[in-house]
Amino acid sequence: MSGSNFNPRNIKYIPVVEIFAFLELDPIILFLNRHEGTDIMNKINFISWNVNGLNAAMKKGFVETLNTLDADIVALQETKLQEEKLTEEMKNIKGYESYWAFSTKKKGYSGVAVYSRIEPRNVKYGIGIPEYDIEGRIIEIEYDDFIFFNIYFPNGQMNDERLKYKLDFYRDFFNYVDKYKNKGRSIIITGDYNTAHNEIDLKNPKPNEKRSGFLRIERDWLDRIIENGYVDVFRHFNPETVKYSWWSYRFNSRAKNTGWRIDYFFVTEDFLDRDMVKDVFIENDIYGSDHCPIGLSIEL
Asked: Whole-model pTM?
């Protein structure tokens, strides 16, 4: 500024609140508008997807699909990877940290992963039972407001031994999770449960009544889970809706929509009591696997 008469002490400073009042603006509304689309309201979007082999999914546009889904937390099942086969492209997707559990029992089998934009408090792999943990089926992530489980539940179709393994897994896993629930923790459990719960959850229930995946003894476990205070969020909000999340690669099943709903988000009842669930959906139009992604949105 030219001249030597300028003195900043002579400037009259007007409080910001008075400026807002003069312009008839609400600073709170301005703040919320400025942050629209951010986590100012603590909205969190989840996706769960059995990719049936992440190597194969990567060749079918997995990263582009992930970016389109734009979720904060993404759970994958059946990655079929060993740690040495994990590429930088898989591990380091922009905006996410990733966490991986691998099968040490055999190669190209099982495996789960989580991509997260939210920094967790703690991450665990398995539940401390070696016969389950060696198959790389469980990731547990503790966040500030909830505990998140990504699970690839066993398939019981191979033989009676694997069916028993599956039922034992249900029992022991939920015994483990119940300890958190009994302490009042909020819990989200997503993944491929490998069981259709009721007749509405698969195209052809009668012919499949004696097939693992729709056996009464398997469905009874889902009944117990619900009786014990966990909610199948999709069915809770869509009691009459017929939608599936898995289709066999055989017999042109997906084109005919001859499917099963075996992928779920289960939550503890407090999510409903506190009106935290804002959306739940099944993305039938997304391909790249024999499963499609499922989604959940919550607001804390």
From this structure: 0.87
